[in-house]
Amino acid sequence: MTNWKIDESHSEIGFKVKHLMITNVSGYFTRFTGSVQTDSEDFHDATISFEADADSIDTQNRQRDEHLKNGDFFDSGNYPKISFVSKKVKKIDGEQYKLLGDLTIKDQTHPVELEVLHGGTTVDPWGQHKAGFTLKGRIHRADYGLRWNATTEAGGIVLSDEVKLNMEIQLVKS
Fold first, then answer.
1. pTM for the complete prediction?
2. 2-173 CATH choice from 3.40.50.150, 3.30.70.270, 2.40.128.110, 3.20.190.10
3. Which range (53-57, 66-70, 103-107) has the least confidence?
4. How far apart are CA 87 and CA 122, in angstroms?
5. Burial of residue 80 (number of CB atoms within 10 Å: 0-12, 13-18, 19+)
6. Secondary structure of the chain: what % helix, strand, coil (to 5)?
7. Are the C-beta atoms of 37 and 47 separated by less than 8 Å?
8. For the segment 121-132, what is each residue's pLDDT rounded down to a tens digit?
9. Residue 34's Cα: distance from chain center in Å?
10. Which run of H or of E encompasses 90?
11. Can you give the pLDDT at residue 147?
């Protein structure tokens, strides 16, 4: 069994959501931890757990971030953690995988499927074994109780229900 952990300083946990249905607004969670256990070299049998601090959300706008932390969205005072636990890793071919697991936000847990591209493994200049992954997926924020929205003067909606997840993960063997 090989144990890996997320190298936070070389990883990004990001998302995009349509604003006014014409542009995407990006955000990140800046504090997170994660671990991976695997018996294989190619991670096809990996078990993954991940946690992000809800109040570490950063969209490059302090007023928006404060709104996202309050009860309209993440309610980070009452629900400080966002978590993911894997159920299954399916190797598609070469370096492509599907990762199936349960995502929990505000005590609401739903299955998610993420596309994973394994970027490879290497040893860094300090002798640490590293593995890289790009993950993409989509969730519906209303499934997790993130239902706040508003209507424009023309009757359009301010925020899309669909949220695109984009993650760049570097693991370090522990």
1. 0.90
2. 2.40.128.110
3. 66-70
4. 26
5. middle
6. 10, 60, 30
7. yes
8. 999 999 999 999
9. 11
10. strand 81-93
11. 65
